[in-house]
Amino acid sequence: IRAHEATPKQCFSNLFPFGVASAAFQTEGAWNVSGKGESIWDRYTHEHPELVFDHNNADVATDSYHKYEDDVKIAKQLGVTFYRFSISWPRILPTGLRNKINEDGLKYYHNVIDALLRENIVPVVTMYHWDLPQSLQDLGGWTNPTIAEYYVDYARVLFENYGHKVNTWLTFNEPLSFCHDGYGGYDAPGSRSSGFEDYLCGHNVLRAHGMTFRMFQREFSHLKASVGITLDLSWLEPATTSADDQEAAETARQFRFGWFSHPILSKEGDYPRVMRESIDRNSKRQGFFRSRLPSFTPEEVDMIKNSYHFLGLNHYTTYLVSKGSGKISTKPSFDDDMGVKISQNPSWPKTNSTWLRVVPWGFRKTLNWVKNSFNNPLLIITENGVPFEAGLQDVKRVNYIEAYLRSLHDAIYKDGCNVFGYTYWSLMDNYEWMRGYSERFGLFEVDYKSSNLTRSARLSAAFYSTVARTKCIPDNFNYYNYDVTK
Ligand code: PNW
């Protein structure tokens, strides 16, 4: 596109599905209701309210456990093709193990799925969106290798009960986030050690994912269903054109995305070479007898390689990468192993998240990088979204969505990226992990002060609804005459 040309109307194919997403812990509430077990996020936010930005917990959240029919109604109002939500492991298996199945929990998700199907909305199910049963964390959580078997048992319960109604499954949401930030940072379960536990977590998540995919192929091949995994990739752009910064940016992509995508999507399988070499080398320099990054057996490499029908991709923002100092501390860390400097350009527009700036061109670059690195795999955008202040006239959110959709459109129709489906995060405002209720990503605003947690359509809901129904990015969207209350 040349700058002087007016923006042409951009349409996606007639079948291109638009959806919205949510996650169990962020919306359901009812944390100890009807037999649900405690999750690591229940425990963490109850024990450490001081670590949550607004000191709140998700005991009620948007009360979707009781108000799921309202949620389905507003999704219907949008005219979306699908709704991506997650199942809470401890609501189904209160102790994490399948010796005790919570019938009320099973029933709840049947109700959600049936309500969606009645309205012709396709359910897309994430099996794990970070809310691990606390009793499994007491055994070491994702650092304990046995958890992979327990996860397969849980996944089997889901296929057995919902397999005839759900045909799109995601095993995990963003292992980078819950391994790096959870087992190496300040997310639940909290106080772990980076450069160690994050790698153990990643290793067992990859094993659990591969084993689940093979179990699905062996036991449920009669179901017409697809199984994938959601990974997050912020675009990582070299800070300058220097060869050093370009190499640093590629190293960062391999650490942050290749960590999980290379074992699953690459021809060779296993961890990216740069990750293996850097962590082996640093471990040796720090006096360890063996590498802090565990190794797969050749059988595991084969099991994990190609264990997907499609890849889910979450994309929000872009970072700049420059060469690191080459120094490492005696205390191990993922960041030292990656060994680069990451920043953002202060001129990029800010949002209500410190980590999220508006950089639409990064979306197209991300998709092209995935296309070129892994032979153009089938992708669904499982999350893209932005937080702004409360209020229904959210022009800034409309602008974000429009700009990112144009970038996506270019990636598909100019560059040939194999993307089928886009998901806005989120249907409505919800509990944003360590940021509590302070960050609002919703197309619908939630009034946390009202007794029934009223959901109200924002301007962005009207905009996104137009996109979802017409499959086109409107070139004449009227920002001011929409009655967002209808
Ligand atoms: C996602 N980053 O996490 C999660 O899947 C959602 O549950 C969450 O509500 C949403 O983003 C908004 O925060 C991310 O630093 C966390 O690029 C961090 C990043 C991206 C996604």
Automatic annotation (TrEMBL):
Q: Give the highest taxon in the source lineage.
A: Eukaryota
- GO MF terms held by the record: beta-glucosidase activity
**Coiled coil: which residue ranges?**
none
Pfam families reported in the protein's UniProt record: Glyco_hydro_1
- The entry's keywords: Glycoprotein, Glycosidase, Hydrolase, Signal
Classification via InterPro entries: GH, GH_1_N_CS, Glyco_hydro_1
GO process annotations (BP) = carbohydrate metabolic process
Assembly notes: Homodimer.
Q: What protein family does this chain belong to?
A: Belongs to the glycosyl hydrolase 1 family.
In Swiss-Prot or TrEMBL terms, this protein is called: Uncharacterized protein
Species this chain originates from: Manduca sexta
